[in-house]
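dumping this here before i forget
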Amino acid sequence: MRFSSSVLSVVAISAATALPAFKRQSTDIDPTILQYALTLEHLENAFYKEALSRWDLEAFTSAGFSADFYDQLKYIAHDEEGHVLYLEAGLTAAGATPVTACTYSFPMTDPKSFVSLASVIEGVGVSAYLGAAADITSKAYLTAAGSILVTEALHQSATRGAVGEIPMANVFGTPLGLNPVYTIASGFITSCPTSNVALPVKAYPELTLDSGLPTAAGAVIALSPATMPSGTAYATFVSGLDIIPVAVQQQDGLLKAAVPAMLSGQSYVFLTSDNSGNVTDSTVLAGPAIVEVTPSSPTFYLTVT
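structure:
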């Protein structure tokens, strides 16, 4: 089974409108990143616990999943709870008040839609930790974040395999900055406690993928931004360590762009104002939308030693 574009469309449609942008503040970056990580871990913790409280082993096996995979999901839920407790303890020890869980709305109606969405959320989690790593100044915090990243990558592999996607689809992980991750995560958040510390993040305008998934390199995808750009715009794809801007063509009220050859696995596309390859607040017009790209057949050479 492959996950459908409908789940990703729901995320994109609601992402930019779920929450107001948090105010930026001048503060020590490491505690801020820990609060940001805890915000994401609260979301994942709630996501798995909601699903496992709604559907039992019989529901998952009836949907085509194995009993072993059901047990893996329980381990993942255990891991996410452990991440929450660890980050809460670390922030408390640093003299900060940890953010508490928000209220959430997840577009899942059965075990299949849950696992499909889990594969996407875990991929975003991996991208979040990888993207934040460069901003962490403390080696101890960096080691802790790296340790959580490894576990999130294991979760991503398990869930991708369960929905028929290649777990190791890309040679590299795909880093994302704080605002792109928040744009996606905010699509699942309906409200947060007013007592939570304000984080220096904001959601970009929505960008909806109007093409089926998965797609392939060379295929043309259709994108629908909340506001059609009045000037020149580009579809800037992010996949692994590659950032590739592509010219878009406006057709039938949509923007069309060809998927670059370098894309593979869970990737992201932004609508940007230029083709510099810089995905920043000043260049992003909308997005990201999530694009699943089927990898080409693997090749390797025995002469490479």
